[in-house]
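Supplementary Note 3. Input sequence used for the single-chain structure prediction.
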Amino acid sequence: MSSGTEQFQAQINGLAATKEELIPLAFSGFAHFTAMQVRNRKVKGLDLHLARLQAASAAFYGRALSDEVLKSYIKTAINAGPEDQSLMVTVFSRHGEFTAQSMDVEPAVLVRTALPSDGPQGPLRLSAVTHERPLANIKHVGEAGKTFYLHEAIRQGFDDAVFVDRQGRLSEATIWNIVFWDGETVIWPIAEMLTGTMMGIVRRQLERLGVPQRHEEITIARLSEIKGAAVMNSWTPAIPVKAIVSTLIPEAKSFINLLHKAYEAEPAYSL
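The predicted structure, written as discrete structure tokens, is reproduced below.
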């Protein structure tokens, strides 16, 4: 299925999805996915996306499709749309959820495309909520909490929310990883979280560039020590965070520019 402009695609296992195939998926919660931005029909961090899908499929279904099969489905969708687009790969079981039949089966793949996105401009003000995502290391569907806490944050006058675990550590934001700066070193929080593909790209390119990085437990009380903060996801490597709850955080343009520089250093691949 696609829009009249052929910019939006929905394909299952490389073929145009029918209404009959899509209807059962409308409320299916037992699936995982990865999201990426396509530019000039190329993708950055493809190896990270494939590794994510492989690991999550093994955990959910006991089986994983090969990289070659996944790449063929992604390539088909990319070639069916414009040069620049957003693309989401969702892996699911045709047996659905709440059933033992979805165990140890070969999963199917839904690929959806839409207009490209670079995310909001920022800087953002974040509320803080005590929340731990279930199966935090897997990017899975059906997480109502992320949207619920986004709405709550907006009602309170914030732009979004960051999650705090039961030990008081900041972990991740609703649909973002969060990263900090002490003026010299990039600081990644220690907590249970999803390791984002953008996070993986930025970390390895910062290492290549010789930029110091470390992992630390970051609490609300420690935010007064922070010299900069940003959120990142598949849209963008860095949107500045100017406040978390009542603590103001310097925008640190050099830090934001550094994260963008790291992303720009990542090569893009054609499938």
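The helical segments are 19-22, 46-61, 67-79, 144-155, 197-209, 253-265. The CA atoms of residues 121 and 210 lie 27 Å apart.
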